[in-house]
# Entry
Amino acid sequence: MSDTRILVIGACGQVGTELVENLAYMYGKDAVIASDIKDDPSFDVEYIKLDVLDREKVRSTIVDNKITEVYHLAALLSATAEQHPEFGWKLNMEGLFNVLDLAKEGILKKIFWPSSIAVFGPTTPRQDTPQRTVIEPTTVYGISKFAGERWCEYYHNRWGVDVRSVRYPGLIGYKSLPGGGTTDYAVDIFHQALEKGSYECFLSAETALPMMYMSDAVKATIDIMQAPTEQIKNRSSYNISAMSFDPASIGKEIQKHIPDFTISYAPDFRQKIADNWPASIDDTDARTDWNWQHSYDLPDLVDDMLKNLRTQKGVSA
Ligand code: SER
# Structure
């Protein structure tokens, strides 16, 4: 029997919803607690209402429930943080410190904290962006994630904190909706395709970005947490990659299943954010160090999304 006791903070978000399900399956329902600021979400595991900025409640939740590992997912994403820069910085940084400090005290054994492709900026090479390169983020979200990466490494080097991190690309799944990201179009497009047969995209046709299917993202998250310590050679955050596409290409792939589907373009403020991010990512280090592998490419992703959303929405093929 494993003595692992897990708290997922920000469990109601796009990643949290699927991660909790998978962790409960792997470790048992009693070993996992979901938390978020929402009042009464439905989970198959115990739920605790928790604001990650409430330092004392974070501590008592972790101590009282004998938590050994935290997956700290609560954050404002790129588009929302641009609308609320001060709160974006506060939530993304203070939330991280509240968790890192408990590991520094020895109360927590291990932390997962996601970074993002948003750490990269206009001066970074856009194609096959390397693990180590110029990093000059221009969004509040990107700045907070980059600062967080440096702090994770610092806590590890100085106090031996076992914190592990990956830079998520845009994430696409059918079980939950994204909230406030620049890559959200790649989820919205499926819902609109099935409901209306058309989609107006807030990015231009040729804006290529790195993307990943949610089951691969969850796998990366659990894999890096379960990897033997000596395999984790990077304590800031690992590049991980699966596919790269632009709105026109995903539109075409959807048309293979829904021939009448149409896509139009009306770029908004999110275009500028996307223009400063990489188009594709080199994730050799993650593949070498802890055997990261993705399963889904664009055709499989589109096929699986449509199949599952059709069932969910009761739409026939
Ligand atoms: N999906 C995120 C965003 O668009 C990137 O990490 O903000």
Observations:
- The domain at 6-170+213-239 is CATH 3.40.50.720 (Rossmann fold).
- The first strand starts at residue 6 and ends at 9.
